[in-house]
Amino acid sequence: MATITTKDGTQIYYKDWGTGQPIVFSHGWPLTADDWDGQMLFFGQRGFRVIAHDRRGHGRSDQTWDGNDMDTYADDLAELTEKLDLKNAIHVGHSTGGGEVARYIGRHGSSKGVAKAVLISAVPPLMLKTEKNPTGQPISVFDGLRAAYTANRPQFYKDITLPFYGYNRPGAKISEGIREHWWLQGMMGGVKAHYDCIKAFSETDFTEDLKKIDIPVLVMHGDDDQIVPIVAAGPLSAKILKKATLKVYPGFPHGMPTTNADQINADLLAFLQQSQQASA
Question: Active site residue: 27, 58, 194, 254, which one?
Fold first, then answer.
């Protein structure tokens, strides 16, 4: 298994396949690099170098007791990109991974080899309801998540796949294989790290990070996202970003890179090719 060891001694697992312009994928909570299978195969077959890591406390990376916060996640990503000496990279983040990408660029800058970014069903600018963010969700929602999580993590991870993929909607075609794959990824991770990450993805304000990002960013969000509701997410991020392209998908769920992979992959590819032509 390929790993790097971070400055605090944490081993981070990663996949690094193919050659060409690098695409770095940051996964959602509480998943792993494997959640990007549909994208890594697609883009790897089209001449890109595809890279994805398991966030600390997730999957095959070390299960840390401390450091399960956005600053540390961003620093881990920076160490990975430095270790792999990535140039002209595209960073793609889903859900919590979108926050990781925003904090990484906001904290470390885009001059170190980041050409463009993509935020898919992402948590920025802020999920939590505050005076300045009235469309966010109240803290009671996240307290409820923590309560259900601690009461029965395995069952919680089975149940959450239904709204995650929109499988609780009338007429939805449910894939038990996709649900089981989500559950397996979740159960591979550390219970403390995943608990801490609920706070990280829900209470971190990415507004200042988004303001600093000066590269082209594609913002993709489904309007039936039940996990990161669109009202406080994608469109608000697009307004803050300097060079944003917003794509809203009617009826698509939070897990649309899996349930609607053909559409998401095609739109991702078009965005990357447009950017390549513009910089050529």
Answer: 254
Is 225 labeled as catalytic in the residue annotation?
yes
Q: Which of 225, 237, 267, 275 is catalytic?
A: 225
Q: Examine the residue annotation and report whether 26 is marked as an active-site residue of this protein.
A: no
pLDDT digits (tens, 9 = 90+) for 132-153: 999 999 999 999 999 999 999 9
Q: Which listed residue (61, 95, 110, 237) is catalytic?
A: 95
Tell me the per-residue pLDDT of 173-203, one tens digit each, with 9 for 90 and over: 999 999 999 999 999 999 999 999 999 999 9
Please indicate whether residue 95 is annotated as part of the active site: yes
d(CA 48, CA 124): 27
Angle between helices 96-108 and 70-83 (to 10 degrees): 70
Pairing of strands 244-249, 217-222: parallel
